[in-house]
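ok here's Metallo-beta-lactamase domain-containing protein, seq below lol
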Amino acid sequence: MILIVRLVCLKKPVVLIVTLVLAMITGIRCQSFVQEPKSTNFQTAIFSPDKISVNGDILNGELKADRNYRFIYRIKTEREQKIWKDLSELTIAQVKIAKKQPLSGPRNPGEFNFKKYAQHKGVFYQVNLQSIDHLQKMQPKTISEKINVLRIHIINHLSYLPKWLKIHAQSLLVGYVPSSEKDFLKTLSILGIIHLFSLSGLHVLVILTFVRKLTSFFRIPVDWVDGSFLLILPCYGLLVGSKSGIWRAIILAMLAMILKKMQISISKLDLFSLTLLVCTLIYPFAMIEMGGQLSFLLSFTILYLYERTNLLLTTFKMNLVSLPLICYYTYQFNWLTIIVNIIFVPLFMMVILPITIVSAITVHWSFWDFVNKIFDQLYRFLDSIALNRQFGFITGQFPIALVLLLVIITLFYVESRNFWNRYLLSYLVVFWGCVFLNKFPLVGSVNLIDIGQGDSILITTPLNRKVVMIDVAGKVHFPTKPWAKHDSGNQVDFNTLPVLKSKGISHVDKLFLTHKDVDHIGNLETILTKFDVKEVNFGIGLENDPKIKKTIQKHPQIKFKNLHQGDRVKVGTLDFQILWPKKSGKGENSDSLTLLTKIQQKNWLFTGDLDIPSENKILKKYQFKVDYLKLGHHGSKTSTGDNLLQVTKPNVGLISAGINNRYGHPNQETLTRLKNHQVQYFNTAEYGMISWYYNFFNNEERLTTFLKGDLIEGNGTKK
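and the structure came out like this:
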């Protein structure tokens, strides 16, 4: 709003006309971006080495045909794998499509919305390729293709450097980071210094300053230099992948040169506003993505920063500006961010960046091996800080309205001279108010996290929140050849942790493991390593499982406890009654830990993968009714028998199953049983994460889903 008002008030009519024209074109361009194109078939595709990734027998990335597509392809042989790993040229090939579908979005709150991100880049579909044949080197024809080929050659040239110098050079000079180094970027992101290693205006300004001083030394006319920059800078923007931060600096520099030649004098704020419009014209979604928002916001902040502010206070204020956005997107911050920035920014400017530029010119110097060892120790230290949970603080996701309010408050604060004033006080009140609401919510919940084929259930209580989890999911890996083994990630990183962090949850009070199947406890080691878990409970006998034994030995700080029929586990206001197992077992389906609990006057039954014979044994000892039933074994016909449904009479059944899973869950026989007993059922495969909320102060309840909204509200049903 400030920028719009400022633009309307421009005194120069030429600039105002240009501004209005740019605004109109930007709106039209943005509209064309968001329109999904019709799907078409293609038989040839172009593959660029910097846009593909080889992960065992999986080849994926982005290809170009009639438009850009995400693709995935199963590599058939080790020889074929080597061909793709060694690919170093723009390549055209014949392809056969096995399946084409629109990109899928997130299925749980807090997850990264890759679908939206890809659509902003003009990518709407994913194709599964059945075959890729007749690979041939492609001769570039357009300027864009020639620039892309140059980019590939530069990346290949820089790959001769040792590891850390290679990462520096490729990321800082051409904006390329291989998929194998994503953990490095994650560490930098946690510490709040990712902006230094992502191509931004800082690097462009440094290069421009260096070139100007060099040309001044050789007495080259300024007009010649500026004219060359007007041609080179746009090409450089295309070369490095059209990052929003780069375009901001490039457009800013070019506009300053053009306005100078036209002898038009405007303020810094007007120049920034024009830059914003032109950048939005080039990439309409720059201002609704985290990278673009941080880049422009920090640049805008510099315009208002009190000029006599010292380095320490400047760093503090700049971090204060970015903090609301970081919490909105990542749900956390690191207590050491300001200290790391104060130390690392000068180190980066005076050491890392100059070394990077020199090393890019002299890639074969043996001296760089010694420098690389120093960087290796530096990043090991940074990694240890980033992974230390004591330095991290989970805030939860902030409401967008309060994020905007915090940003506005900081803009007033950065303009002030003093450290402590009413603006900082207001900022702290709003910021910690957001955190407090996330940490002490007014509602409790039961959530079936959509982790595909498996189980992971999150239960929370209101106010003085207690957190309970039942199972942590996992992926079943089938035997394969060594060269074909690939890292498929895990649901903890992609699904569970984003859900927990977005809610402001920083620890789990009780974790229940139902049985030993991988799709229930395969991610146990991951969550115990990456998250604070107070106690782990499981059915008696599971402690003898080799994997559980190893986990117990590795985490002595965590309490592990076995349970059997008749035990009770209290967590705050929750009281879990253990219905099964009755005796020590091997942790198989028939031994599944079965839990009955009352939440806000509603009975819940969680059965793991319990089979029908074991269900019947429970019913011989216990007679009870339930309101909500978590169906056993993902809706398999071996669980949730007629006897259980007849005795417990559930109102709603919940199923956790993967989309088009290989097991055919939920089984039609089970669904027929539910229908015969008049039990409504909802499946995560159809609805994404399913959540039941209840209010602490009244009897209101709500069953809602991430993909389709409310299902049950009060006594009404929506389906």
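fwiw DSSP finds 26 helices and 24 strands in the chain. kinda neat tbh
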